[in-house]
Hints:
By secondary structure, this protein is mainly α. It has a domain at 42-71. It is 59% helix and 0% strand. The protein contains three helices and no strands. The protein has helices at residues 9-22, 26-43, 61-70. The longest helix has 18 residues, at 26-43. The chain starts with 8 loop residues before the first helix and ends with a helix.
Amino acid sequence: MTLMLDLPPELEQYLLQSSEERGITMEALTLQVLTSMMDGQKQSLIKAGTVCEVWSPYEAFEAADTMLKAL
């Protein structure tokens, strides 16, 4: 299956930088993130109502907000 995502530039840059640091493609990293999120939901590692701090580099507030909403 092919999935197209319309990401904010800050999040795209974050994924690109993270994938380069890990030596994998951005597509592979994105798949890992999605898979881990699905696994996390199955295991309920984060309980409802838990406050999670989100850190994002380079003052990428929009990316941090997007990630916080995903949590």
